UniProtKB/TrEMBL annotation:
It comes from the Bacteria. InterPro entries: Bact_Acetyltransf (IPR050832), GNAT_dom (IPR000182). This is N-acetyltransferase domain-containing protein. GO terms for molecular function: acyltransferase activity, transferring groups other than amino-acyl groups. Keywords: Acyltransferase, Transferase. The keyword Methyltransferase does not apply. Pfam families: Acetyltransf_1 (PF00583). It comes from Paenibacillus solanacearum. PROSITE patterns: GNAT. Coiled coil: none annotated. The lineage of its organism: Bacteria, Bacillati, Bacillota, Bacilli, Bacillales. PANTHER family: AMINOALKYLPHOSPHONATE N-ACETYLTRANSFERASE-RELATED, AMINOALKYLPHOSPHONATE N-ACETYLTRANSFERASE-RELATED-RELATED. Residues 7-164 form the N-acetyltransferase domain.
Length: 177
């Protein structure tokens, strides 16, 4: 008898959000965030309800709890005038890693993007996450070498605005400029 679970992948609907929230919360904790189950559920609920993202999840056998997910966000390319999808999140619980689960979720993402006529999928991963890099490259993703990506944290600007409103200045707060 085969003890290997049969994996199923489905697109998340609103009724799936409550079951996905604990998994999403563990994913966030994996990246150093504090647990916020209510916040995780509200975030996923809004994303699904408002079509801000598309989530695929994997479960074993008869619709048991989810064991992995990927979340895609739509964006556009002005140059090609086509849709792109950002594969923002990919997470598989430790017990199902190295069994093709991540690859199956990547394939679900690829099929979804292709079905929308998108130019492609893009993702980012930590420079030291060699395991994920191998998975992505095995699935056909290529490391971007033509462009550098930058990030502007608006939280820094928000903190400075608060200081200025409270009577502080950059000079008084130890800023050099």
């Amino acid at each position: 008898m085969n003890s290997q679970p049969t994996l199923q992948i489905e697109r998340a609907l609103l009724q799936d959000v409550a079951h996905l929230a604990p998994l999403f919360d563990r994913y966030r904790q994996f990246y150093g965030q504090t647990s916020d189950l209510d916040g995780a559920e509200a975030f996923l609920h809004d994303n699904v309800q408002l079509d801000r993202s598309v989530i695929y999840f994997v479960y074993a056998n008869e619709r048991s709890r989810p064991h992995g997910f990927t979340q895609l966000y739509p964006t556009l390319s002005s140059v090609s005038m086509r849709r792109l999808w950002v594969l923002n999140d990919l997470y598989v619980e430790a017990g199902l890693r190295k069994q093709g689960t991540g690859r199956a979720l990547l394939e679900a993402a690829r099929k979804h993007a292709a079905g929308t006529g998108a130019k492609g999928l893009e993702l980012a991963t930590a420079a030291d996450n060699v395991t994920a890099q191998r998975l992505y490259e095995a699935a056909g993703y290529q490391k971007e070498v033509e462009f550098l990506h930058y990030f502007l944290s608006l939280e820094v600007w928000s903190d400075e605005k608060k200081r200025i409103r409270s009577g502080g200045s950059r000079r008084n707060q130890g800023f050099a400029g």
